[in-house]
Input
Amino acid sequence: MNHALFRRGLTVATALFTLAVGVGGPPAAVADGSGSAPYLPEPTGLHAVGTTTLHLTDGSRSDPWVPEVSARELMVSLWYPAAAPSGQRAQYMTPTESELLLEEGGITGVPLDVLSTTRTNAFADARPAGRVRGLPLVVLSPGFSKPRTTLTNLAEELASHGYIVAAIDHTYESVATTFPDGRVATCAACEVPHDEAFWNRLVTGRAADVSFVLDELTGPQAKWSGARLIDPSRIAMAGHSVGGASAVTSMLADSRVRVGIDVDGSTQIPIPESGLSRPFLFLGRQAQYSPGSGGGAVATWERDWERLTGWKRWLVVAGAEHASFTDVGLLAEQLGIDIGADLPAARASEIVRRYTRASLELHLRHRPQPLLDKPSQRYPQVKLCTPDTSTCV
Output
């Protein structure tokens, strides 16, 4: 695994807001762009979007990062098709979470609560809509040290197209996880030496979190009133950075995950020689993940590509940076912060949403998706790679 890539994401500044910190320079003061509150693009689907949060406790295991905590507590955000656009728009994050993120990154020049003012498109606790067992479920896992909210844009998009989406805050792996009683867990895992054993432990723990959340959403004692809408035979997982690497680990550990998507994350625990036959999509930066470009992060994709025995695609995006694939790029650009990407944030967001949804539509709804089979004139920044010949077109 390219550990430097993940270490560069340990603070908000490095992978979220400032290119300078990512290459070892000091954090710069930030000008407040237009002065207006940041916002997420509107979803493109026909459904209004609702959202709610779940506080789940796995009493069968202690916390992997704070062993004196005898149970693994998780906060999960759900997005889903709503019966009607009613109620208040959901808050993106709390003022405290915004403050911790910005302070962790050394960001100045913007109000510390600015991220809590981000305009979302989902309605808090709106009534779910859909047929019983009629909706596919997509689990989202964020990058290391990043809260689940950084994948809200993708989640809202998928929910507007008829998916239920569950984004997990992997407790003590994020700079801030807020529980219903007001407690805020910070990133204990950030203080652990980041050797090979650490990364193995990280993705293994995330796989356990995913399986537990699936149990809680699809089991006989489901913890959400809308859980009856989930089709347990149509489950996918997508993640960014180490969250993407964890998609592989989760698929190996849990056969319920039928489709995997790794967004710009070098993989960790190798796929065994027996292979993985379920569909898998790699989507990453052209500068980092072009096949045949040498060792490091791309070598992990090349290793696992050979052992993916089912449907698979390898796509790279020209001009993107690591943060381009999440809300981070969108919000940073609106706040006047340069993350070093040549590709505009709105365009990067459209690409992530469109190609993720295409993969899910193909494999969970069996709808043909020509977008995944050849280069697209609409998205010339996306290159379809053939690792066997080290070419991308």
